[in-house]
Amino acid sequence: MHELSIARNILELVDATCHEQGYSGVETVRVNVGKASGIMTDALVFAFNCAKDETLSVNATLEIHEIPVGGRCRECNSDFISQETIVLNCPRCGGAAFEITTGHELEIFELEVDG
Amino acid sequence: MKVKMVKKILEANDRIAAGNRALLANHKVEAVNLMSAPGAGKTTLLEKTIRALDGRVRIGVIEGDIQGTHDAEVISGLDVPVVQINTGGACHLDANMISDMLQEMPLDELDLLVIENVGNLVCPAEFDVGESAKIMLLSITEGDDKPLKYPLMFQKSEVLILNKIDLAPYLDVDMEKIRSDAKKLNPDLKIFDLSARNGQGMEDWCRWLEDKVKSR
After folding, report:
1. Which residues are A80's β-sheet partners?
2. Pairing of strands A69-73, A79-82
3. Which residue intervals of chain A are DSSP H helices?
4. Is B22 an 8 Å CB contact of chain A?
5. B127 and chain A in contact, CB less than 8 A
6. Region of residue B195 (left: phi > 0; alpha: psi -120 to 50; beta: else)
């Protein structure tokens, strides 16, 4: 249940940003979660809703944008996007020499706030 | 009103982990994060490793458990500095917990700090605690399907220890499948086969650890 730790980190970062910039409350928190980041999105939403009391996000909705796993193959020089969470071979040429470029994201990218 | 921001969610953890890493480096202490499922043999391996390296490497231990002090008591019987963290339910250690405990450790008197993480194959791999290497322990009794079921831990570890190999004759486990699946996930993974119970393979692992400490 690491999603609870992650949810608490999100709430703290949002509170800090609101204090810093003078916002009084938050309506929506938008996050990017990579498919290979090991996060269960349903569990993250559940944890967020459990932990948001007594924060500026108390009335906020957590909106998750899932980022697929993508990579660049060094054998066939192509960029690929995979539907899998774990890529073991390049989906184009089957080669094993590739680097993963997306899918590990775990970041807040936007808030809807009250002035 | 929309506000754009780009904040890594684990930024706070990663910042504290970087502080831990710097503190350990200043004191010339190598730190390893020992991770496995419950019951894979982390504490037994640690106990045998401390005995084997006695007089060669000065070891301190941070024990992470959800509750209880059993493991810390076992290790403190070996006369090495040990502190216990009880997470009270959290399934992993994070950088902040380690930062508090580093204050309790006699860092100038240590060469190696072993952080024994909470038994769990998922969450511990998510959190950087400031270690220089993650070491994963998999007992072969857990089955040969584990690398592909719990990939993150295999991907993030520098070393995989296959423990309890003395039990291989009694198990339907394909050790070659474990090795090849783990290598597919992480081609650089260094794998040691050992039995902490009967000591088989302990020498290679201890030599690797000692070399790691010397090269710090």
Report:
1. A71
2. antiparallel
3. 2-21, 41-51
4. no
5. yes
6. beta
Residue (of B66, B67, B83) closest to B75 by Cα position: B83
Give 10-residue mean pLDDT values along chain A (115 residues): 87 94 96 91 95 96 96 91 85 86 93 88
Tell me: the pLDDT tens digits for B121-150? 988 998 999 999 999 999 999 999 999 989
Q: pTM for the full model? A: 0.81
Question: Pick from B3, B9, B152: which is nearest to A38 by CB?
Answer: B152
* pLDDT value of residue A1: 63
**Which tokens is B28 given?**
């010339």
d(CA B192, CA B159): 8
User: Does A46 contact B at CB distance below 8 Å?
Assistant: no
pLDDT at B168 over 90: yes
Query: Hey, what amino acid is at B145?
Result: D
Q: Taking CB atoms and an 8 Å limit, are B126 and A2 in contact across chains?
A: yes
Local structure of A115: helix, strand or coil: coil
- A108 to chain B: which residues are within 8 Å by CB? 5-7, 9
Amino acid letter, residue B149: K
pLDDT band at B91 (very low <50, low <70, confident <90, very high): confident
By the CB < 8 Å criterion, does A27 face chain B? no
Q: B58 vs B55, B102, B103, B209, CA distance in Å?
A: 7, 16, 18, 12
From start to end of A41-105, where are the E strands? 61-67, 69-73, 79-82, 98-102
